[in-house]
């Protein structure tokens, strides 16, 4: 990632023609070859940009970016700062972060699932994939817990498969589907398969108290 | 099928059936409305597995029949027809509607695939439709709207002999209404948790007839269901499972201080003052009320923000709290309560400024417990 702060003017020639007059701007040159020109506003949105694949040619103070049928010409007047950093590989946006976090929270607080419950282990491995939690209930019986943000029929099916696999090892195992919200169909199927549904309150588990006091 | 029916009656019936048309249907046939002509009646039904609606109206039928047609389209068409008798007839796999000089042809759907509507549960009792509608409206306002706590999106219906109690809460407020009704059996005891929005819509829509009949599935047999019937219209809806909070313990039995305010003036004052509670940079809007022997002062806004205050006359019995008290509420919850109280005088009962307040109508000397109570949790007074 190369960041250049420079007084520059920019010309775009392509589907339309546009011109940025001389001013101080941020130029981002990314590893994928893309270049974007930013002003000090508009959050993430550049004034002009060229998406990859494109080629950058630097000739003295003029950068010329060329892509299919388009050209971005940046004329540098004065470079105020020019730094490069290697950011490495990005892990990507984690959309299932809440589910993971719920698993961590529940592992610490098995009593939310039932009084006297204890954790055996997180990510209990089976040959068809790991189960979120393996617990013991108050009587010492094993319980498999599958955690979802929003429980749908798929989640019930998944837990049913785990229950079937694990019962060959641990004997009789009960199943609990824990989620913030449940699809009605998921509840019906779970009840049919003898799986208990437990509704989770993420904020309460995190210990976040609502700023507004409640009646109960 | 071949029949003639009045346009207004048909439009009303189709609109009633269309209430149960699903937005995202699990099966295509559920997008249809079922029209059944037999003898001198036309029945219109809609169903989405959660809720069913059915209405019968008298029609001049020359030929009986049963047909399923796209529901939304039929509703739109019938609504826009001129006010003249409508001729409805089937031609092979089409339904033809003629009214005046306009003529519509609709494709019909596979009627054999349409599921049977749930049977009406056992009748539990009846009451006047307008009394029921206003009681439901008073309570439904306090129901939660977030699906994460489904049991709070319902109105709890409790039947204890000839007394009917409706209650709803979203944890910030609780509305309870008791009313008398006519049960089928004098010693009937039952409870149900009914989706609040459906209940409110149904109660309102049934005010066309003089009376509403409630029907409940008894005991724990099968899926819980409640049915309503009135003026030829009937509807069933699935009950919410889950435990409704034990709300009776939340209702204070005694008050340390009581204020009596003119409702209309109070509502206007809150509406005005809350304007600056919304611009104030805080998480939730707040209106502060201060009571003393001089009356009530409403305030909103903060020291660094826009501010507003207004003084109102009010009756005040504040010996229990040392003569003066300040308390703060979310203005929209307060306004909901004031309009639900539905009385020219609102009585506010307090125990302490951090404890819930109870809004009721004008105090009646002959009643121990007011028929309607709106319990409202105050917001913390910061600084």
Which keywords apply here?
heterodimer, A: 216 residues, alpha+beta, Protein Yojf, Chain: A, Trna Endonuclease, Chain: A, domain 1, 2 domains, seven-stranded antiparallel beta sheet, five-stranded mixed beta sheet, elongated, B: 383 residues, DNA Polymerase III, Chain A, domain 2, nine-stranded antiparallel beta sheet, 27 strands, 41% strand
Sum this structure up briefly:
Chain A has 216 residues and is of the alpha+beta class.
Characterization of this structure:
The complex is a heterodimer of chains A (216) and B (383). With 216 residues, chain A is an alpha+beta fold. Chain A folds into two domains: 83 residues, Protein Yojf, Chain: A (Distorted Sandwich); 117 residues, Trna Endonuclease, Chain: A, domain 1, CATH 3.40.1350. Helix content of chain A is 20%, strand content 44%. In chain A, a hairpin with a 5-residue loop joins strand 2 and strand 3. In chain A, helix 2 packs parallel to helix 3. The longest helix of chain A has 18 residues. The mean pLDDT of chain B is 91. In chain B, strand 11 and strand 12 form a beta hairpin. The relative contact order of chain B is 0.11. Chains A and B meet through loops of A and loops of B.
Question: How does the SSE layout of this entry go?
Answer:
The complex is a heterodimer of chains A (216) and B (383).
Chain A: E1 2-13, E2 17-29, E3 35-38, E4 48-50, E5 55-59, E6 62-67, E7 70-84, H1 97-108, E8 118-124, E9 131-136, E10 142-151, H2 153-170, E11 174-182, H3 184-192, E12 196-199, H4 202-206
Parallel strand pairs in A: 10-11, 11-12
Antiparallel strand pairs in A: 1-2, 1-7, 2-3, 3-4, 5-6, 6-7, 8-9, 9-10
Helix pairs in contact in A: 2-3
Chain B: E1 2-5, H1 7-18, E2 32-38, E3 41-47, E4 51-58, E5 60-63, E6 65-70, H2 71-80, E7 86-91, E8 94-99, E9 102-107, E10 122-128, H3 129-140, E11 154-160, E12 163-169, E13 173-180, E14 182-183, E15 189-195, H4 196-205, E16 211-216, E17 225-230, E18 233-238, E19 257-262, H5 263-279, E20 287-292, E21 295-301, E22 307-312, E23 315-317, E24 325-329, H6 331-341, E25 345-350, E26 357-360, E27 372-376
Antiparallel strand pairs in B: 1-5, 1-7, 2-3, 2-6, 3-4, 4-18, 7-8, 8-9, 10-14, 10-16, 11-12, 11-15, 12-13, 13-27, 16-17, 17-18, 19-23, 19-25, 20-21, 20-24, 21-22, 25-26, 26-27
Helix pairs in contact in B: 1-2, 3-4, 5-6
